[in-house]
Structures are given as C-alpha cells and as structure tokens.
Amino acid sequence: MAQPPDDFPQHMFEAAVEFAILAIRTLTLVNGAAVIALLTFVGQVWANDQHNGSAMAHILFWPLICFLTGLVMAVVTTLLAYLTQMITTEHGGGRIPPQSKRLRLFAIIASGLSVTGFAAGAVLTAVGIAG
C-alpha cells in the first residue's frame, strides 16, 4: 500500500482552512443576500401600496431579525477565526495554544448560530408569506 507523502498533514490542514473560509463566506453571503432580498421585496410592495407594504413589513420583521442575526454571527465567526489564527501564529510555537482552542470553539458556535439564524429566517419568511 502506498504511503502518503511527508507533507500530507500540511495539505490536509490547508484543505481544512480552505473549507472553513468557504463556509464563512457562504454564511455571510446567504444571510446578507436574504436581508437585501427581504428589504427589496418590502420596498417594492410598499412602493405599490403603502398599506400592503406596511402589513408585509410587520409580517417579515422577525425573519429579517433572524437573517440579520445570522449575518452578525457570520461576521463574529470571521473575527474569531482571525483572532484564533493570530494567537496561534504569535504564541503557538508549533502548537495550538489553549486560548486559540477556546476561540475556535466560540467561532464554531457562532457559525452554528449563523446557520440557525438563516434557517429560522427562511422558515419564518415562508410561513409569513403563506399567511
């Protein structure tokens, strides 16, 4: 059986970092796009009929809050990932310091809250529009 090359762990680490970057960008993109889409939709309804626009704004208030929370948590995830990387680089000395491990855990939790915000916003939007 063939042995993996000596730099295999380094390649796997780099791949994991690339997946994390993609995940954080995706969280920011989907939540941000949802906020823009809802605001555009409400604005368009409002422009055509202020009464219906007002009603739609009330219906979509909580979904908007969920998407905004998801967006803020995606930004928090980015900040925590940056801090984790900086602490590891400056104080790691070839290992991952305990502070970095804690920050990484908080970043993972923040990303989970971002996904949850998006999912809750999507469900509440569908329920609100369906009436």
How would you describe the overall organization of this protein?
This protein has 131 residues and is mainly alpha-helical. It is 88% helix and 0% strand. Helix 1 packs parallel to helix 4 (98-130). It is elongated and about 65 Å long. It has helices at 8-48, 50-59, 61-91, 98-130.
Secondary-structure element order, as H and E?
HHHH
Secondary structure: helix percent? over 70%
Straight-line distance between termini: 61 Å
Q: What class, by secondary structure content?
A: mainly alpha
Q: Give the percentage of residues in beta strands.
A: under 5%
Alpha-carbon Rg, integer: 20 Å
Count of extended strands: 0
Count of helices? Answer: 4
The whole-number mean of residue pLDDT values reads 93
How many strands, what sense, and barrel or not for the largest sheet?
A: none
> What is the count of distinct domains?
1
Q: Which term fits the overall shape? A: elongated
| Low-confidence region ranges | none
Can you give me a brief rundown of this structure?
The protein is built from four helices and no strands. It has helices at residues 8-48, 50-59, 61-91, 98-130.
Strand and helix map with partners:
Blueprint: H1 8-48, H2 50-59, H3 61-91, H4 98-130
Helix pairs in contact: 1-2, 1-3, 1-4, 3-4
Write out key terms for the chains shown:
elongated
